[in-house]
């Protein structure tokens, strides 16, 4: 397992060079930059936008189409009451400290992390150990606190390391205690910040002209799916299990956005809510299909011990050993693994990390994050939680809507029991304001109590019941007001609230991590010099543009071929770009290596003679030559993923160009 | 030209039946319904969501792919300063009145419209004329004011009608005058509402933890594109003209959302910004391709005369007659027409309405809306404006960013002129606080003045200049502080701010109008009774689900065929649904007619014998029969739009089923 950020070819990743390239090629750019920018907001330029669309499209096919999920599109604007019920108004917060002098606002966990890491680094320096930043890429992020070479006690070093291993596990009070205990100070002022307070991460607004309906921008797409559960079940003709899915923007007002696309305030999510019967162990009918998929797991016990060693295990074993809670959750972990593989993620840089108890919501049964290794450390890109019946239950309770499944029982269930029957018309006049209280007390009796009370009614024509707060604490109810009888009750249907397994994807984080995984530098690779010759080796299926069309020169004879080929590719829905600029062929190919364009067509004098064209593979720079239709058919099979370059290279004649080093010509 | 809302087959459209069907099939649904709902917010269920995705995908191919537009994805959150500069903070408002007694909030133009229409209706009743609501579908919306049978003067009727024809043309003050002049009263209280005040339609929020950065949810996707102009021009290798495009959500806090999807607070937009050189008449190189496309036009002169008669005209004629301002604008009007046609809009229910002078922003050169006729009247679904250089200019001025194009001139321009050269180092000490003022006065001199001043310098060694507000109003500047000489200046580049043509699509409005246009009722058509048998005749290219697969019965022999066919269709990315329910074949087809599924495959006992399957056309209910691969190839050609049903029906053998009336079996 790789532990440092590297390029696709295993060289150390030079983040600055990559960033400059992404900026130059307009993958993404700070939003409102000409106005000075706004932290945590980014725009996607044409290649980023196309890459995002292709990842989403692959996602849609891999999940929604493959499993007939019900895709819905719900609103971002959400009224207060919904998010109050879901718990977000009260609990969707980060811990924030304020500097008492200059008002600096610090995210408490980041602040603790930052200072402790600086001290550990200083300790290493003092001990004369080599400070290898790349040791743990988590430490590579921009640190505010400068390391000072001060040696620490061995025991303190161990304490710090244990704290850092479970930094996500502390609440605000605990973070406050750490700040005091270790005297952590804001590097800008040298002062301890204030104790952490909760800062709600939702953007607030008002809906309607009279400002009396407060609302928020949704922090996740899940709630809209839960609220439509009954309608979706109906649409699915009452069939269980089923899944809904949503792709859309969500919003979190981060205290300190950082690391480019990795912590932003507006982001695209793709979320699945798979509704499953909680009884019968949450089996999944397609689990056998993924049984042998091997995952890299970091379970909660390992983390609680302050360790980060991963285990490789098939999902079949993980579920049967109870490392992963149930089959449905396991099925989706494997499907997430396969999805990441499909879009080109470097699978040696993926781990599934289980949430620790304190990290999870109290109702969650289990939760795993797919984390991808980047130059900013291990980044949570996909969450996969078993949310149990929590959400449906709270919304049902709040609104009275029946967010349940009713299942016809093959054999009806028969109960024999003491039943209470109250004559409500007479009850009110008799007990006046206490009526409801007495009623509730009667309804709340146990089977044993009822048996006794029934006997009182038969024997005395009235019963005596203790009802706290009414009269003397004991009330008498006569037999004309209440009946208690032993009866049979038959249930033909079973009613249950489904549990929810929720795979939740941060598309922007996946997109950025994928870029890092697929980036490499041709110059470093072939030792041809120090010039920057970046390549993004996107698989043809997700690459922003599929084909670059380059006429050899500005010669007018080439133009008709360029037009004809562009038109044909367009007809097949294959995105292509023509570069007729005066730059050398090599320069033009380099530009498109940086854009991650996997294929290149050259039109040269031979084309004019015999209508053949060459097709170039970005990664190997190898070329084949054939007639137009053959080449276009090859392109089609490559961009749909039906074939790989090696298949095409084996089928079509190689074209040996003179361009040993294309960038020099 | 149709003027009333009808079904696809020309029958009167029964809005209630259609609404019930759309609700039943979960095309869309009020958001947060179990919480009582929020006006103007809707969720799209599975068929609505798929229909939306297919419309967007068609749009992307028709516009972005066809013309190599640069698609970008910019943020919804927008800081105050950007929208202050664009004019939205000050001007993006509707006029709102308040009832002095009960606090009712009324949108002023809707209120005036509502009361005047009620009076006109009352007049008709009083005159004993037939009140045909369908006369003008604009009047079919829910009216708050009840019509009372009161006869009006003929002149008054004419006044009212003229007001209604140009209701979009009034500002707040004018609407207030109409309310007073005609004594318009809120039907709920019988009182005149307060004078209209501007209500800004943007949703406001605060970005960041310290609440000191006010922001809004964008009301359009345009601004993000303008702000990225310089980067996009660079990405496009400085080539002009070019277009950017964005597909994303926008937000408007409507005072009174109404008419379902037609006036909502959160909506999907697709917007193009085509940047063009303002010189040379805004020609478009592909205009000849659309020259002969015939459009239905309602120009501004007709409307100002209080009329609504349309003219049919080719876009070629419209541009050469100056009905439409320029070729580029005309090109996009024609392309919009072709797009609407492609997705299946009934082109007899489309008109292009030109904005009146007061409707347009002051900077706009021309603006046309594509309006679609629905049961709520003519609905603006696409706007197409020439925004001139306004947006780029104001953002450039505010930020200093060079949002311009620099074009190398073939022949440099040479100017000979008097130039002023100031020695700023000496200027400050000499004039102190007045330095800048004197400098500005010198820079501001005309060529004639400079010639005279140069002579003064030569003759007297100093010049005398009137500078208001400095000393006595006249200052002397000696020749060691300033030079004025006659020199040559050469310009090799031309710099200009591009103009912007902006086609802007409201996807939700298009989607809803399309549904109305393609809806009809099979029962009404074939006279087979009064049962509701709704059909949505979506073209296969945009239909939410392409194929319904129905096994004849629950017989287990059919199952392998169902699985195999589903899998094959999935492989080709064709969305299909299996209905193995116990309902009759006819009922199952009816359900899918309502969902607009164009094709149906039946698996029956013959399939088990010879592996042939039948393919049914939704609209004609005709069927063909062939082997699996032939049928799947036919489906592929239908869903890509390469063939129509009549082609397939001509090629494959007809299957004469017994199902004369499938719903009865």
UniProtKB/TrEMBL annotation, chains A, B:
Job description of the protein: Catalyzes the ATP-dependent ligation of glycine to the 3'-end of its cognate tRNA, via the formation of an aminoacyl-adenylate intermediate (Gly-AMP). Also produces diadenosine tetraphosphate (Ap4A), a universal pleiotropic signaling molecule needed for cell regulation pathways, by direct condensation of 2 ATPs. Thereby, may play a special role in Ap4A homeostasis.
Subunit structure as annotated in this protein's UniProt entry: Homodimer.
Transcription keyword on record: no
Protein name: glycine--tRNA ligase
Keywords per UniProt: Aminoacyl-tRNA synthetase, ATP-binding, Cytoplasm, Ligase, Nucleotide-binding, Protein biosynthesis, Transferase
Listed EC numbers: 6.1.1.14
CDD domains registered for this protein in UniProt: GlyRS-like_core
Gene Ontology biological process terms from the UniProt entry: mitochondrial glycyl-tRNA aminoacylation
Compartments reported by the entry: Cytoplasm
Organism: Colletotrichum nymphaeae SA-01
Gene3D superfamilies: 3.30.40.230, 3.30.720.200, Anticodon-binding domain, Bira Bifunctional Protein, Domain 2
Predominant location category: cytoplasm
A GO CC term assigned to this protein in UniProt: mitochondrion
Membership in a protein family: Belongs to the class-II aminoacyl-tRNA synthetase family.
Lineage: Eukaryota, Fungi, Dikarya, Ascomycota, Pezizomycotina
GO molecular-function term, one example from the UniProt record: transferase activity
Class of enzymatic activity (EC top level): ligase
Domain spans labelled Aminoacyl-transfer RNA synthetases class-II family profile: 202-551
SUPFAM superfamilies tied to this protein: Class II aaRS ABD-related, Class II aaRS and biotin synthetases
Region of interest: Disordered: 123-145
Reactions mediated catalytically: 2 ATP + H(+) = P(1),P(4)-bis(5'-adenosyl) tetraphosphate + diphosphate
